[in-house]
Amino acid sequence: MSADQTTATTTATTTARPSGAEPSSSPRRLLEKLSPVSGARLGEFPVAGEDEVRAAVARARAAFPGWRDTPLAVRAEALGRVKQVLAEQGEHYARKISEDTGKPTFEATMTEIGAVPVLLDYILRRAPVLLRRRKVSTPIILPGKSGFIEYFPRGVIGIISPWNFPFQLAVVPVLSALIGGNTVVLKQSEITPIVAGVVEDLFRRIGLPAGVVEIVHGDGSTGAALTRADVDMLFFTGSVATGRKVMAAAAQRPIPVELELGGKDAMIVCADANLERAAEAAVWGGLVNCGQACVSVERIFVVDAIHDRFVEKVHEKVSQVTVGGPDEQADMGPLTSSAQLGIVERHVKSAVAAGAKVVFGGERLQRPGQFFAPTLLTGITPEMEIFREETFGPVLPVVRVRDEEEAVRLANASEFGLAGSVWTQDVAKGLRLASRLECGQVCINDVIQSVGHPALPFGGVRSSGIGRYHGDEGILAFMNTRGIMVDRGKLNSEPLWYPYAGKVAHGFELLRGITTRSVGSLVKGFLGLRKKMTRQK
Ligand code: NAD
After folding, report:
1. What φ, ψ does residue 500 adopt, rounded to 5°?
2. Do the beta carbons of residue 454 and residue 246 sit within 8 Å?
3. Where is 172: in which H helix or E strand?
4. Atom number of ligand 1 nearest to Cα 226
5. What's the average model confidence in pLDDT over 123-151?
6. What is the pLDDT of residues 202-240, one digit of tens each?
7. How far is the C-alpha of 405 from the C-alpha of 411, rounded, in Å?
8. Distance between Cα 242 and ligand 1 center (Å)
9. Contact 232/177 with Cβ under 8 angstroms?
10. Which residue lies with its CA nearest to atom 9 of ligand 1?
11. Who is most buried in 55, 161, 163, 354, counting CB within 10 A?
12. Residue 283, CB half-sphere, CA atoms under 13 Å: how many?
């Protein structure tokens, strides 16, 4: 476990069991959860061991055939009930998310809960179209055949989720996996155990058949147990370091793995940008969720011609951001993870030591809890740690560049490639620049909100991950593909089958037909082969 606001104790307990788990009298490790806002103790939460994880996977496996064979329309109807529960419980859930993470309740409402029905509606609308068996065109070289593609679920999906958007990043992958007929074992972050309970409550309320969604609670050891268990795919959202371990575990079986990892997203501000909007966006894009978003603005490239004016505007806006706990209705909360606070402090200190200038903020706030000031830094250069590594905190590092060319080159000079944004009033130029950014999503004149566009695939390149979810890709990610070829079965043999005697010349003729697209040669070759299809007596 990380040195975080959860601490471990070992107690004999039979309480606070995950749903469906057998009662146990063996000692169980408990994690203590502290408030990121006040440091107060919020509760103790159990850590599931290897046996409990295995049992949960076994229940999910037993439930799989029934859920797979449930008609898609019935599965969709069941998952659609999520919207009804969110309509009834959404406000309560949002407050719980705020309590656990420290994030403003407005953010919890919009970016965590509000995102789910939008993405779910897309899943429910597209799955029947996407998952239908479809006919594909068949080339002339395969006369008498037709081809079809169909999808079938992978089986039991192990889903491991992080703490930064602990509700959305658990619920959406689960729904995306369930629609196609998979069952799921979910392991959420130990840093946000209260939200883990909220997610469990949501799935209990929609009333799925037993075993279709199993939730195991715990820390990295529980996650590691899930990666070793009898699952058919792993879907992981979290850090690069853990993503490597998950992939290594998946390689042992081997099973497919999807990794949604970190980012170091670039914002490129061109000379013709709407500077007022770009400055507002930089502040929101860098500070939303206290900068703890995988798609936070982590590097701001500003062309020389407007650099000083832009920094001035950002300075003015960042100084107006209010900081406080959810009860204070502030714009920005504390860091959710105390370990993250240490990383943010280190990045800012080392940037300053290497010559960066603190225009605003730059340090922890002198109050209880894990608060760091909204921070604006200029003079950032590629050698600095803050340019290369994910900060995941409320820091806006500005890099002065000569022109857009230099901005694109430096934006791509990163281990990461998750998302980015381009700011210009010339949309055609914006699209040209967007196409040159080596990452999985780009906004033009907007920031982060593309993640909420349900038709857009989401995921990264390089160390930002493997695979896509959201959009059509997000439904198909959890499916196996099956190709089916149909022949009406009238002929007793095939030109390609035995015997081969006397077929070589006809084969050459056919090859000529295939390579030169000569219909004459194809027909001649086929007819010759047809004559040789049965053995000469
Ligand atoms: P983390 O890697 O520390 O933990 C993620 C999850 O993995 C937790 O549930 C944890 O308990 C579990 N885990 C820890 N060790 C494990 C192991 N050995 N085997 C299996 N599971 C294990 O990540 P985090 O700190 O919770 O999340 C922050 C990171 O996630 C950031 O880097 C952020 O950029 C990234 N992130 C990416 C996306 C995306 O969609 N690309 C979204 C959100 C967060």
Report:
1. -95, -15
2. no
3. helix 168-179
4. 20
5. 97
6. 999 999 999 999 999 999 999 999 999 999 999 999 999
7. 10
8. 6
9. no
10. 189
11. 161
12. 24
State whether the Cα torsion 239-242-244-249 is positive or negative: negative
Torsion sign, CA atoms 492, 497, 501, 505: positive
Taking the centre of ligand 1 as the mean of its atom positions, its distance from the CA of residue 444, in whole angstroms, is 28
Lookup: tokens for 294: 């995988």
Helix extents (H) in 30-136: 50-68, 72-101, 105-107, 115-130
Q: Extract the tokens encoding 524.
A: 């001649």
CA distance 64 to 157: 10
Instruction: Mention every residue, 6+ apart, whose C-beta is less than 8 A from residue 490.
Output: 144
Q: Would you state the structure tokens that stand for residue 116, as one six-digit string?
A: 């789910």
The C-alpha angle with vertex 229 and arms to 226 and 230, in degrees rounded to 5, equals: 130
**Cβ of 246 less than 6 Å from ligand 1:** yes
- Other C-beta atoms closer than 10 Å to the C-beta of 366 total 6
Active site residues: 260, 294
Task: Please work out whether the CB of residue 164 comes within 6 Å of at least one atom of ligand 1.
Answer: yes
How do the residues of the chain divide into helix, strand and coil, expressed in percent and rounded to 5? 45, 20, 35
Residue 359 to residue 504: CA distance in whole angstroms: 79
Using one digit for the tens of pLDDT, what is the confidence trace for 151-209?
A: 999 999 999 999 999 999 999 999 999 999 999 999 999 999 999 999 999 999 999 99
Give the CA count within 13 Å in the CB-facing half-sphere of 429. 15
Residue nearest to atom 28 of ligand 1 (CA): 238
- The DSSP output letter for 18 is P
Structure tokens at 431: 């699209």
Looking at this protein, which amino acid is placed at residue 366? Q
Atom of ligand 1 nearest to the CA of 465: 41
For residues 291 and 335, what is the distance between their CA atoms, to the nearest angstrom? 8
Residue 536: exposed, middle, or buried by beta-carbon count in 10 A (0-12, 13-18, 19+)? exposed
Nearest-angstrom CA–CA distance, 237 and 455: 20
Find residue 486's DSSP bridge partners: 146
Q: How confident is the model at residue 535 (pLDDT cuts 50, 70, 90)?
A: confident
Question: Which ligand 1 atom lies nearest to the CA of residue 418?
Answer: 41
**For ligand 1, is residue 220 a contact (CB within 6 Å)?**
yes
Tokens read off for 299: 């590097």
How far does the centroid of ligand 1 lie from the alpha carbon of residue 512, in Å? 55
Residue 20 burial (C-beta neighbours within 10 Å; 0-12, 13-18, 19+): middle
Span from the CA of 162 to the centroid of ligand 1 (angstroms): 5
CA 336 to chain centre: 19
The answer to whether the CB of 189 is under 6 A from ligand 1 is: yes
Alpha carbon distances (Å) from 215 to 174, 308, 447: 11, 51, 33
- Report the length, in residues, of the chain: 537
What's phi and psi for 179, nearest 5 deg? -60, -35
Buried b (16+ CB within 10 A) or exposed e, 83-92: bebbeebbee
The minimum-distance atom of ligand 1 relative to the CA of 238 is 30
CA distance 485 to 362: 63
- What local confidence, expressed as pLDDT, does residue 26 receive? 59
